[in-house]
């Protein structure tokens, strides 16, 4: 055989060897992956042979499956539409699933190890038992109110979020992101139609698919003053301690003065700490933060939950919807020393401070609950397909204790003063003690300010019922006042759903 033919023969043998190796790789290592791929038509048909379980809120199914008579036997349906979209998510044919549909997929689909008894029984009976049911913590009234109030806000904001939790347990009472989306087109069995609906949402510059309540971090403005006030109280100050204030203050090393929102706000040289919180005194908190030092401000924020990057909201004992980390940001000058100007701006919730709405609600809940921050959760119970057996029931647990009971009581008094005498009056609810803190945060040099409110509701016995955070992105003038009004409506709805206590 001449040399060219030998070379051809060697190449052919190598190619056959590679093909053989690839086939063995597929059969030995990739078979399960391909067998279970969402793009495997047989898998899709098998998956839709079993009726998927419900996702329920207050006894009503907001995610359920209906029989179609088609090749894919069951179609997923979301009667709540946009109102519950960011919590429930969606379970499409060819797209990635999201929300509770994703994190509880195995139980809803009936493939969870917890439901193996049902599958064994089906082998003998020939039946196809449906998936399990997931019951959520949401309050129907609070969720509906949060969605409606955000959509109909009085300042024309197009983006924002609201979240409410029970301070005593961590149960999420409401979770809404604006703008929202209708999940029903995304689960159409016409995959071209579903893909077109998804692409339209994905290309929307307002990002309706984003869960802003959990994943959006924005400068929190004066709501961050509660964190700084907590650090001050733990370092020797009291509610009545007088701190430097004034109409304007320029930090050392900076030519940029810090001013209050209006000349009438704490123009005195000194004000009490409770007055500084009530009136939202920028000059007072800028100077207070610099006096405390960056380490104490950062550490207190961390104790409230800032910098945590592994928090999820679903069940209490395992993963759930991911939560973005809130950050205090950089406060150092070139060379590594603390920059007083950066620290001053950070102490009023500006500069590089970033917070999620959930983190804001957790700060308020910690204050309302005597200093104990409970782990937030959405899944209340997992029920068998026939609803006779409970495979999981949430038992609340403490996440952390950011402040002592005494400091929490002082912060509570300050936040109540904000609603009774200061910037948060629009959150008031007759017959209940409401505390809160407004926040107005610069969003950029040529864009409107963000409006924030964090707060809580206590019954006549001082028992916390709800803690809430509302954020209106680029709401402009009156944004924080409107956020407070919306927060009051959400807490009022949560109170009504809890029986008023």
Structure description:
The structure is a single chain. The longest helix has about 35 residues, at about 5-35. Helix 11 packs across helix 16 (about 405-420). This protein is about 35% helix and about 20% strand. It contains 17 helices and 19 strands. With about 500 residues, the chain is an alpha+beta fold. It is globular. The chain has a domain at about 215-380 and about 400-495: DD-peptidase/beta-lactamase superfamily (Beta-lactamase, 3-Layer(aba) Sandwich).
Quick structural gist:
The chain has 501 residues and is of the alpha+beta class. Helices cover 37% and strands 18% of the residues.
Topology:
Layout: H1 3-35, H2 41-47, E1 55-57, E2 60-67, E3 74-77, H3 85-88, H4 99-103, H5 105-109, H6 116-125, E4 133-136, H7 140-151, E5 159-165, E6 172-178, H8 191-203, H9 212-215, H10 225-233, E7 242-244, E8 248-249, E9 258-259, E10 270-272, H11 273-279, H12 282-292, H13 294-304, E11 312-314, E12 320-322, H14 340-346, H15 357-368, E13 373-374, E14 379-383, E15 390-393, E16 398-400, H16 405-421, E17 433-441, E18 450-458, E19 464-473, H17 479-497
Parallel strand pairs: 1-4
Antiparallel strand pairs: 1-2, 2-3, 4-14, 5-6, 5-19, 7-10, 8-9, 11-12, 13-16, 14-15, 17-18, 18-19
Helix pairs in contact: 7-17, 10-12, 10-13, 10-16, 11-16, 12-14
